[in-house]
Design goal:
four-stranded mixed β-sheet; three-stranded mixed β-sheet; about 150 residues; CBS-domain
Length: about 150
Amino acid sequence: MSRKIREICNMKKKVITIAPDATIKEAVDCLNKNNIGCLVVMDGANIAGIVSERDVLRKLADTDVQLDIHSLKTSEIMTPKEKIIVGRLDSTLEYLMCCMNENKIRHIPIVDNEGSLVCLTSIRDIIRVLLKDAKTEAQFLSDYVQGKYPA
């Protein structure tokens, strides 16, 4: 049976978000303070986009040194909602991992049936669960082969 992302969302804490008019400095400070790699940009109750460490680095690489990058708005560097991949609570972990791999991304916002943000998942979250499952299955198989189960 395939595991659903709903299981990860139930274990995660509140999603850390930022407003589109927040500065890049505020976004970087928030990323560092919370030791995370991505923020969901929210315009009220709606997802406006996402901003990641990679977005900040790309902007730094493309910006003239004369420009004060810290005063730029998050909305100027974020990946807009039209370009982000969004998962649903019934999406399988394998499906989301394939989406991340194919699109070379590390984070996917998860929404409910009404399109409201539920959680933000990362490739690390998914790998952690799948690795735990694989270790458990390997242990069960090892125990079976060694005859540790009664007949």
